């Protein structure tokens, strides 16, 4: 089963289109899939529109309502937890050898078919990328990232300041915390194997995602890196010119949060 997670906060102008594009993109593949829309306390018609799609395609679309706005990190954690609970019957718990350095239970997948893809619900990232990412998970990777820093990647409609800050953060994190196969440490468009999510849960428990803001994406990546996961990237086409609503990211606040994440999860435990 492929789960597609859509964290949504005040996305009434785009959520229906993203759901429709995802249904079309994955419907052609023959994959078994389910779209999980997480409503993060939207104050507009996002929940109403998502519910309408759920009623129309109950076997494909499911709405998870967070009730009140708690931030992207809580949305991502909720999607992780939802997929972990739904794939637990396809995962076997295996206790590591007695000489294992941390003694943490490791989740080992019976196969490598279950995965979670998370992308933005604002039309900036195309669901057509999901299938190439899932294919690589099926080949044995733990994590696939849609990266802005690969050949053939394109970024349209993003300010020079945002592009410079993102590039600077990527360069610094690649230098301080090298992760083979990874260049983009902050993008949210990723495909995680269910096995990897299970390992994260086993190792970090309730702190599987502790950041509430956009820095949660760097946090998750640093935690996965510490587990020795195997990652790869595909080129991302990021279309901010297609975004129908203003960005919700507070750049200064996010930069401060990323530095805190680096100190805690990069150099820390």
Global shape: globular
Portion in strands: 15-25%
Spatial separation of the terminal alpha carbons? 32 Å
The percentage helix is 25-40%
Strand order of the largest sheet: 3-2-1-6-9-7-10
- Given as residue ranges, the uncertain stretches (5+ residues, pLDDT < 50) are 93-111
Determine the mean pLDDT: 87
Topology:
Blueprint: E1 2-8, H1 15-27, E2 33-39, H2 46-56, E3 61-65, H3 72-87, E4 91-94, E5 106-109, E6 115-118, H4 130-138, E7 143-147, E8 154-156, H5 160-176, E9 190-193, H6 194-204, H7 216-226, E10 231-235, E11 237-239, H8 251-266
Helix pairs in contact: 3-6, 5-8, 7-8
Structural key phrases:
269 residues, alpha/beta, seven-stranded mixed β-sheet, two-stranded antiparallel sheet, 8 helices, 11 strands
């Amino acid at each position: 089963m492929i789960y597609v997670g859509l964290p949504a906060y005040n996305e009434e102008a785009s959520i229906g289109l993203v759901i429709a594009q995802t249904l079309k993109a994955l419907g052609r593949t023959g994959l078994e899939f389910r779209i999980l829309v997480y409503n993060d306390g939207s104050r507009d018609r996002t929940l109403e529109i998502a519910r309408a799609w759920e009623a129309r395609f109950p076997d494909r679309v499911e709405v998870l309502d967070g009730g009140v706005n708690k931030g992207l990190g809580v949305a991502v954690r909720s999607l992780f937890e939802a997929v972990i609970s739904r794939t637990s019957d396809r995962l076997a718990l295996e206790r590591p050898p007695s000489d294992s350095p941390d003694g943490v239970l490791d989740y080992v997948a019976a196969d490598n078919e279950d995965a979670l893809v998370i992308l933005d619900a604002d039309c900036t990232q195309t669901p057509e990328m999901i299938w190439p990412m899932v294919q690589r998970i099926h080949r044995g990777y733990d994590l696939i990232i849609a990266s802005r820093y690969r050949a053939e990647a394109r970024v349209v409609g993003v300010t020079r300041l945002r592009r410079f800050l993102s590039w600077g953060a990527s360069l610094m994190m690649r230098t301080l915390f090298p992760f083979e196969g990874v260049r983009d440490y902050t993008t949210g468009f990723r495909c995680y194997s269910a096995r990897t999510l299970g390992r994260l849960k086993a190792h970090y428990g309730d702190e599987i995602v502790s950041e509430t803001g956009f820095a949660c994406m760097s946090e998750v990546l640093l935690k996965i890196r510490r587990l020795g996961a195997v990652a790869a990237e595909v080129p991302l086409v990021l279309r901010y010119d297609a975004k129908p609503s203003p960005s919700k990211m507070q750049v200064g606040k996010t930069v401060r949060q990323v530095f805190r994440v680096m100190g805690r999860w990069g150099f820390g435990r």
